[in-house]
């Protein structure tokens, strides 16, 4: 894996840019990235927004272990996030709130096939959306 990252700050603005390349022997190459912007307001409040793309190849346990599935595909996900942070009590505490959405293609999941024998099977979920 090759990975580069740079963080820049000027005044109230923060910017983080990152990119990576994974060359998996079974699943080929994939470019990943992350970008984040933050703005500090005069009250100490910090607003932020981020976006990125990730890649996760199934492990050998996912493919060949108990409940494994050799036909699994790798996960590719895209993320968006916004947030706000507010220092309290002179900076001794912090209140924060974030909202995010992750969209995952080929999410690797273990499905219970038989509750009596606990037989499991790894499978890809074609599309998944995770929000919070």
Describe this structure in words.
With 132 residues, the chain is mainly β. It has one domain (2-131): Porin (Beta Barrel), CATH 2.40.160. It is built from 1 helix and 7 strands, in the order E-E-E-E-H-E-E-E. Strands 1-2-3-4-5-6-7 form a 7-stranded antiparallel sheet, with no helix packed on it.
Question: How many beta-strand segments?
Answer: 7
Number of helices: 1
Would you identify the regions where 5 or more consecutive residues have pLDDT less than 50? none
Radius of gyration: 20 Å
Helix content: under 10%
CATH architecture call: Beta Barrel
Shape: elongated
How confident is the prediction overall: mean pLDDT? 96
Reported for the largest beta sheet, the result is: 7 strands, antiparallel
User: Which CATH class applies here?
Assistant: Mainly Beta
Tally of structural domains: 1
Strand content: over 45%
Which structural class fits the helix and strand makeup? Answer: mainly beta
Order of helices and strands: EEEEHEEE
| Terminal-residue CA separation | 30 Å
CATH fold assignment: Porin
In order across it, which strands form the biggest sheet? 1-2-3-4-5-6-7
């Amino acid at each position: 894996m090759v990975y580069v990252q740079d963080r820049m700050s000027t005044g109230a603005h923060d910017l983080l840019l990152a990119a990576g390349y994974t060359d998996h022997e079974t699943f080929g190459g994939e470019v990943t990235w992350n970008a984040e912007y933050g703005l500090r307001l005069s009250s100490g409040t910090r607003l932020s927004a981020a976006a990125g793309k990730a890649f996760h190849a199934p492990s050998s346990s996912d493919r060949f272990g108990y409940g494994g599935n050799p036909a699994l595909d790798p996960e590719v996900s895209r993320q968006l996030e916004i947030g706000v942070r507010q220092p309290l009590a002179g900076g001794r505490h912090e209140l924060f709130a974030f909202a995010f959405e992750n969209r995952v293609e080929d999410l690797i999941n273990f499905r219970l096939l038989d509750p009596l024998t606990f037989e499991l099977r790894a499978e890809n979920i074609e599309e998944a959306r995770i929000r919070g």
